[in-house]
Amino acid sequence: MNIIHNFNMNDSFIVISLFIGTIVVLILPKRFTKKTTCNYLLCGVFFGFLFDHTLAVIPVSYYAINDSTSFELMDFFSHVMYAPFSYLFFYLYDLFNIRTRFSLLYVLVWVFVSIGIELFCVSIGIFHYKNGYNSYYSFVIYFLVQSTWIIFYRIITVYGDKTY
User: Which residues cross the membrane (predicted)?
Assistant: First the structure.
């Protein structure tokens, strides 16, 4: 793992996004228990790490993350950067009390927001598409992940704080 490298625009975006995202999570009025909040934050980190390392490693290698193919400290922070986004996804879903019949619309809005952020990240060098990969594949991935998050939210809402 390479810890020291040149700090550039993509690194700045990761740090600024993580900083602003953390501030947003901290200043929003609390809607969930600490345990549930941690779960929602970890959803972003887990799925970001899972798909980035499934799609960005050999033999698949559809894209590279940041400046090199080796895992760097900023790569770790780029995964942690997903945490505030996932929390905001759950927070707004709960805040607006989205009904099941509107969940598809909610997911589609977030998919397009996610694609927009990803394309911006491509433009500043956080992601480097390779081997024919493009944002259409990401659309499917975001749709599946965020649909799974809705199911997870429903499960947590029903069973989350029960003791067995």
Answer: 12-28, 40-64, 76-93, 105-129, 135-156
Q: What is the C-alpha to C-alpha distance for residues 133 and 152, in angstroms, rounded to an integer?
A: 28
Q: In this structure, is residue 87 part of a structural domain?
A: yes
Sequence letter at residue 84:
P
Closest among 129, 37, 52, 127 to 89, alpha carbons compared = 37
Residue 106 to residues 49, 55, 77, 101, 139, Cα–Cα distance (Å): 23, 26, 27, 10, 14
Beta pairing partners, 129: 63
Residues in the chain predicted with pLDDT less than 50, given as ranges, are 1-4
Q: How many domains does the chain have?
A: 1
Q: How buried is 113 (Cβ within 10 angstroms: 0-12 exposed, 13-18 middle, 19+ buried)?
A: middle
For residue 23, being part of any structural domain is answered with yes
